[in-house]
Amino acid sequence: MRLYGDPILRRKAKPLQPSDTLHVPGYEPQTVRQVADTMLETMFEERGVGLAAPQIGLPVRMFVAVEYEDDEEEKEGQEKPLRSRVLREYVMLNPVIKVLDKKKDKSYQEGCLSIPGIYEEGVPRARRVSVSYTDLDGQARTLDAEDYLARVFQHETDHLDGKLFLDHLPAEITDEHRRDLLKIQQASKNFLHHLTTWEKQRQHTRENL
């Protein structure tokens, strides 16, 4: 999981095709479907509702998300596997959001797997949206969503444009979390250092086989 402070979370992701081969840092090349499956499993392990490709180190325009049978906000911290409450899974490639209701909703609490432990209300999101995307079979699809699901889709699409939910809030709110954000940034820096070292060692081993 890439954390706050990782440069990839601020990059605009590139379009992709279902037939592409993706190179996830730290792993062998994988198909888009394999990456999507891994992203879903990672999301469930972290007890989330959505995960975008940049959050696992891939600068491509893809995210996964789920609908649960109950409001996940009320279920945080429970150990019951989230898969048992899944109503529907979504894998969206190259999503484009169209706002259907310009009235903003600020009532939900928002968090992010890349900014663990920090949650805030007041993030303005459109109440209703339409998402046009490509599925894993290469089919063009359009889906309308409202309320919490619409918020999830907007949050994940933001990741593909290098935006985080804190960017939508006043600077003083981010300042309130500065100490925690610095800790997350340090953890991110340590992770990237270990990842770089590991990849160099793997490359060295391959070159000497």
List the helices and strands and how they pair.
Layout: E1 21-22, E2 30-31, H1 32-45, E3 50-52, E4 62-68, E5 86-105, E6 109-110, E7 120-121, E8 125-134, E9 140-146, H2 147-160, H3 171-176, H4 178-207
Q: What would you note in describing this structure?
A:
- The structure is a single chain.
- With 209 residues, the protein is an alpha+beta fold.
- It contains four helices and nine strands, in the order ββαβββββββααα.
- The strands form three sheets. The protein has a five-stranded antiparallel sheet, sandwiched between helices. It has a two-stranded antiparallel sheet with strand order 1-2. Strands 6-7 form a two-stranded antiparallel ribbon.
- A hairpin with a 7-residue loop joins strand 1 and strand 2.
- The longest helix is centred in the C-terminal third of the chain and has 30 residues.
- The protein is globular, with a radius of gyration of 17 Å.
- It starts with 20 loop residues before the first strand and ends with a helix.
- About 3% of the residues have low confidence.
Total number of beta strands? 9
Largest sheet, strands/sense/barrel: 5 strands, antiparallel
Secondary-structure-derived class: alpha+beta
Strand arrangement, largest sheet?
3-4-5-8-9
- Succession of helices and strands: EEHEEEEEEEHHH
Per DSSP, what share of the residues sits in E-state strands of 2 or more residues?
25-35%
Which regions have little confidence, pLDDT < 50, spanning 5+ residues?
A: 72-77
Oligomer: single chain
Q: What's the end-to-end separation, in Å?
A: 30 Å
CA radius of gyration is 17 Å
Number of helices: 4
Helix content: 25-40%
Basic shape: globular
Mean pLDDT: 91
